[in-house]
């Protein structure tokens, strides 16, 4: 390492990797929607599963934040972030609605596949 590289001022991770926090903020908005759907007083057929899926969305957002701001070494363009935000929204909100029983109208007890899916996730 050259001598002048050690003397450079510290730059936060956001500026080193060129990451724009817009993508993470958009994902956070989707997580807030999931939390509102799960804990907002709606009468779901399976409210417990809705709450578990909302908490999974929170964990997914934390993992996404670590990936964006710590691990990723390239800039995420806005066009890429918008497309992925739509995909993430369909997955997170869609799974929550399906898991809550919005279409079926019945509660499904947690079973082996639920526990295996949680372990693999």
Report on the architecture of this protein.
This protein has helices at 3-6, 13-17, 22-39, 47-71, 78-99, 112-120. By secondary structure, it is mainly α. The model has no long low-confidence stretch (mean pLDDT 86). Helices cover 69% and strands 0% of the residues. It is elongated, with a radius of gyration of 19 Å. The longest helix has 25 residues, at 47-71.
**What does the overall shape look like?**
elongated
Beta-strand level of the residues, as a percent range? Answer: under 5%
How does the helix and strand content classify structurally? Answer: mainly alpha
Query: Largest beta sheet, briefly?
Result: none
Count of helix runs = 6
> Spans of 5+ residues with little confidence (pLDDT < 50)?
none
Please write the string of helix (H) and strand (E) elements.
Answer: HHHHHH
Quick check: average pLDDT? 86
Based on DSSP secondary structure assignment, what is the total number of beta strands?
Answer: 0
What helical percentage do the residues reach?
Answer: 55-70%
Radius of gyration (Å): 19 Å
Intertermini distance: 40 Å
């Amino acid at each position: 390492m050259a001598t002048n590289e050690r003397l450079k001022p510290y730059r936060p991770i956001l500026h080193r990797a060129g990451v724009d926090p817009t993508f993470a903020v958009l994902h956070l908005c989707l997580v807030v929607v999931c939390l509102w759907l799960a804990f907002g007083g709606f009468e779901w057929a399976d409210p417990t599963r809705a709450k578990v899926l909302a908490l999974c969305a929170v964990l997914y957002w934390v993992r996404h934040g670590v990936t964006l701001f710590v691990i990723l070494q390239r800039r995420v363009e806005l066009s890429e972030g918008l497309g992925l935000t739509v995909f993430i929204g369909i997955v997170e909100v869609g799974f929550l609605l399906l898991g809550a029983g919005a279409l079926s109208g019945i509660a499904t007890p947690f079973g082996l596949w639920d526990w295996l899916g949680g372990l693999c996730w």
